[in-house]
Design brief:
This protein is mainly alpha-helical and 352 residues long. 60% of the residues lie in helices and 5% in strands.
């Protein structure tokens, strides 16, 4: 007999529900997501304009506590030799574009919440194609495919900026340059995943990259892979092993998403801490430990959410609110793996 642990509670956590109250309303949940995107755009646009307004060219970016202008500068906008900000007008334009986008997204979110159909299956035209049921792997794969294509296009837009549209800032030469010969050799690019840099093992893995050609080449591979994977998911349902390995309900799907975001935050923390090519010291300072700490904290937060929603998903799958010992053991093992990674990261950070 398999031992179980109850996941039920008598406390009222309705105030924590958030979008969970829309979990079975595909149309309104879409509206909430669009509205969230609008909020993100509004934050980016308003903070960019605030930084432009208070920018002091006589003080370094990091001493002013700027968050977004350094990111725009490393992309080659408004920056000249030695990382000097020579023109803030591009930042103003980018900030305004984000505000306009936030208004459009906010209007779209409000439309889907208040005027659109609660469930997309009740809509008309192509809208119906995007209705989903949490226990339908094929339709979830269809929606995942569209997300992947958007991510792939975003990666290739970054590549286009580096190759065709003005170039990006290269801290090696302390100036903006066109990346005319990005690395496409799969051995070089995928070698970073196994810790290989120039054929030599490096514990920093991807964060060991030391030139923009490899960074842009990596984004080409990522962009193409995302678009190809998106097309595959749109046209093909998940394989049998995936249907058996994953749990298909709202909490579990969210837990997988949070795990992916946690991985991105962890990867970002590594790059922030160790890579001066991606995060030039001219914009972020040589000491980025506080920045690294924020990324690590975000990683831990997302991982906590992943575990919580994964356990909720497992409990929902059993329809009894109970979690088996096997699931508890897997969660514990995952926790130890994460703890080991964090310890290794701290050791590397302390000796680098």
């Amino acid at each position: 007999m398999t031992a179980t642990t109850s996941f039920k509670t008598t406390n009222n956590y309705d105030w924590l529900s958030g979008n969970a109250r829309l979990i079975n309303l595909s149309g309104q949940l879409l509206g909430a997501h669009i509205a969230h995107a609008g909020l993100i755009m509004f934050w980016a646009g308003s903070i960019t304009l605030l930084e432009v307004t208070n920018f002091d060219p006589s003080v370094s970016l990091y001493d002013q506590g700027l968050l977004l202008i350094p990111n725009l500068a490393r992309l080659g906008w408004g920056v000249g030799a030695e990382g000097t900000i020579v023109d803030t007008y591009p930042y103003f334009v980018i900030g305004m574009l984000h505000l306009v986008a936030s208004a459009v997204l906010g209007a779209g979110g409000l439309f889907h919440v208040f005027r659109g159909v609660a469930n997309l299956k009740d809509g008309t035209g192509r809208t119906v194609k995007f209705h989903y049921e949490w226990n339908d792997p094929k339709k979830l794969g269809f929606i995942l495919g569209h997300h992947l294509i958007f991510l792939g296009v975003a990666a290739l837009l970054f590549v286009g900026k580096a190759i065709f549209w003005g170039g990006i800032y290269d801290p090696v030469i302390a100036d903006v340059r066109i990346i005319s010969n990005p690395t496409l050799n799969p051995v070089t690019i995928f070698g970073y995943l196994f810790g290989l840099s120039d054929g030599v093992w490096n514990p920093l893995g991807m964060a060991a990259v030391d030139n923009l050609e490899d960074i842009i080449g990596g984004h080409i591979w990522v962009g193409v892979a995302c678009i190809a994977g998106g097309a595959w998911h749109i046209t093909t349902q998940p394989l049998d092993w995936a249907k058996k390995a994953f749990t298909y309900n709202g909490h579990s799907i969210l837990s997988y998403s949070l795990a992916g975001v946690a991985l991105m935050a962890f990867t970002s923390a590594y790059f922030v801490a160790f890579n001066d090519i991606a995060f030039p010291s001219e914009f972020y300072s040589a000491d980025r430990s506080l920045f690294t700490g924020v990324q690590s904290l975000l990683c831990a937060t997302f991982l906590g959410g992943h575990v919580w929603h994964a356990l909720k998903g497992k409990a929902e799958e059993t329809n009894s609110g109970n979690i088996s010992d096997q699931d508890k053991s897997q969660a514990t093992a995952a926790g130890f793996v994460v703890l080991a990674i964090v310890v290794i990261s701290l050791v590397l950070l302390s000796v680098t």
